[in-house]
Amino acid sequence: SQQGEEDPQALSIQEGENATMNCSYKTSINNLQWYRQNSGRGLVHLILIRSNEREKHSGRLRVTLDTSKKSSSLLITASRAADTASYFCATDQGGSEKLVFGKGTKLTVNP
Amino acid sequence: EPEVTQTPSHQVTQMGQEVILRCVPISNHLYFYWYRQILGQKVEFLVSFYNNEISEKSEIFDDQFSVERPDGSNFTLKIRSTKLEDSAMYFCASSVERWPFNTEAFFGQGTRLTVV
Question: Taking CB atoms and an 8 Å limit, are A33 and B100 in contact across chains?
Fold first, then answer.
């Protein structure tokens, strides 16, 4: 089964606007993580939310987790051009060490 | 700030050749991983490594692949006989604790492998 599917696939907004990206998954999880990847670069860990948490904040980032709907959202407030990147959610799979990534949302923030 | 370092950043190799991708994890980390991302596709797990042995591997990680921690600082991924479909960005990651259960993993910048 597929885990960590993000939508939308692409999002284009103006600087200062908020950006919301969603992630859905299919199996039970221990935690869900969001990563950012600038074009052609490495993955940068943004935030981890555990299955018993509903919301978490880090700076301009707000992540929610709804385990009943098997979904998560990442909100970036007051976006900046430097936020332009691809954003991935990633989930664990039971007792596996494997982290399963989605295809990501490509965010473009226009100055 | 400590970081995971990968070399080279880009490697071009001929089909059938052996390649070794190198990684220097963060010094106090105990768990090491390789992932890959084929262009336009998802990041995929290859292998996890702890205490000098593979702790988990994916179906992608067949006999053509091997990992090694030859000394106290390096962590390598070897592909014995490269195929065109091995072309991808390869990411090394490391974590202090067993990931993904409790903690974040730090990723390197990746090695782009192009097999021609």
Answer: yes
Q: Give the model's confidence band at A2: pLDDT under 50 very low, under 70 low, under 90 confident, else very high.
A: very low
Place of tokens 């494997």: A98
Angstrom distance (rounded) from CA A78 to CA B57: 40
C-alpha–C-alpha distance, residues B34 and A73, integer Å: 27
Phi, psi of A83 (to 5 degrees): -80, -10
Q: For strand A31-37 and strand B31-37, is the pairing parallel, antiparallel, or unpaired?
A: unpaired
pLDDT in tens, B83-105: 999 999 999 999 988 766 667 88
Q: Which residue of A has its CA nearest to B99?
A: A97
CA dihedral A27, A58, B45, A69 (to 10 degrees): 10
Whose structure tokens read 């904040």? Answer: A57
